[in-house]
Amino acid sequence: MHPGPMNRGLEISAEAADSPRAVIVEQVANGVAVRMAVLYLVLSGDSSEGTPIS
């Protein structure tokens, strides 16, 4: 998943970034949500939600 932001012309061409098939914006949004959830679980210290991380 792409963390964003895009570097047009370096990482990706403008044509590919603006393509109707491009999913970069969705990947960035989903990545933010996933990182927030992981941080919440790690920082909350609630080990009832699965195996605790050692």
From TrEMBL:
The residues covered by the Aspartate/ornithine carbamoyltransferase Asp/Orn-binding domain are 1-41
Q: Which Pfam families match?
A: OTCace (PF00185)
What InterPro entries would the database entry show? Asp/Orn_carbamoylTrfase_sf, Asp_carbamoyltransf_Asp/Orn-bd
Domain of life per record: Bacteria
Query: Which keywords does the record carry?
Result: Transferase
Please state what the protein is called.
Aspartate/ornithine carbamoyltransferase Asp/Orn-binding domain-containing protein
User: Which organism does this sequence originate in?
Assistant: Paraoerskovia sediminicola
